[in-house]
Write a structure and sequence with these properties.
Blueprint (H helix, E strand, L loop, with lengths): L2 H22 L13 E6 L8 H8 L6 E6 L4 H9 L4 E5 L8 H11 L7 E5 L9 H10 L5 E10 L3 H14 L14 E5 H7 L1 H5 L5 H11 L4 E13 L4 H15 L1 H51 L2 H7 L1 H8 L1 H15 L4 E4 L2 E6 L2 E7 L2
Parallel strand pairs: 1-2, 1-4, 2-3, 5-7
Antiparallel strand pairs: 4-6, 5-6, 8-9, 9-10
Length: 372
Amino acid sequence: MSFAFALWLLLQGLSLAGVLNYWRHLPVDRQEEAPEGVVVLLSVRDDWDGGAELIARLKAQAARFRLVIATSGNCPAAEALAAREGDWVQIVRAGVAVDEGQKVHKLRAALRALREGDRYLVFVDADILPPARLVGRLLFPLVRGKADIVTGYRLLLPEVGAVAALVGAVEMQLATLPRTASATMPWGGAMALTRETAERLDLDAALAGRLSDDMAIGLAGWRAKLRLRPVRDLLVASPLEGRGALGFGVRQYRHIVTNSLGMWLIACAVVGGQALGWVWALGWGGGSAVAVGYAAAVGRALVRRRIIMGVVEPRQARAARRSLWWDALAPFAVCWAHWGMQLAAVCSSRIRWGGFDYWVKGGKVVRMERVR
């Protein structure tokens, strides 16, 4: 057996073992908590349509909470919702940022509007389709004293089309990575922490001037040696349109590279090893190398299918499984697309997000312009 073939066999074995590890550690007893003093923070754009399905899903949560919607001050749908349901919905009007991400600007305003009895902070994104257990599952490790910051992760639901499904396959590689407290970065679409932790981190200062809310919170948590805990059964559905899907993938990695070059380098090395391995397998490795690659890919796809079926609703699972066809039929394309997004991310410090262009250095916004 050649050294190259042995290395290829090891890489494929490790990749399959990683997905199996995620599946084996899916919680069976998915316990929830519903304490008093919970506030859910939601930042929305001016053109938000009111999120009828999101609001219905938030109302269905077992844990009770107050919903704080942070706007720039010019979101008619949010104002209408607060007018109808002011008993549990509060509006915070932040204005327009000049030196930080607009989402961060609105979240900082929401943090300053917290009330005395607010003890648990849950962050959600406007484009998620949360399960009824979302808030209770995020709160469980906090209430039981098992973590300081708790996070779920996104599961993209690609619309019909090859590009969206390909980007979904790339994201699924990340979603089903083995997760440990020492290697977890929170996702701002479904994240929770206690008020005490927010004050310990001086969260308002930690976010000031930043573009990425979750990267800022995660890096601050790492520096403070806090316990960051993933909830593996919270792969939260998030629809993905085909238009702009590749740009979405590049933007996610540009957030990483502009906040932590070291983290980007590690991720790029891992994915690059697989991408270059497929170049070798298809070009020089022969039938045995290709067979090993495809056997591992089909194995990963089957395990990911089991994971998806176990954590999301059937309709969502059907949409997410569109990405598995890429994983099983053209795993090399998924690796090459993933590595391409990583490499494209380092080519510029400009991030277009939420109607603004931002130029970022060291995680801080150094310039911003509204997209015309």
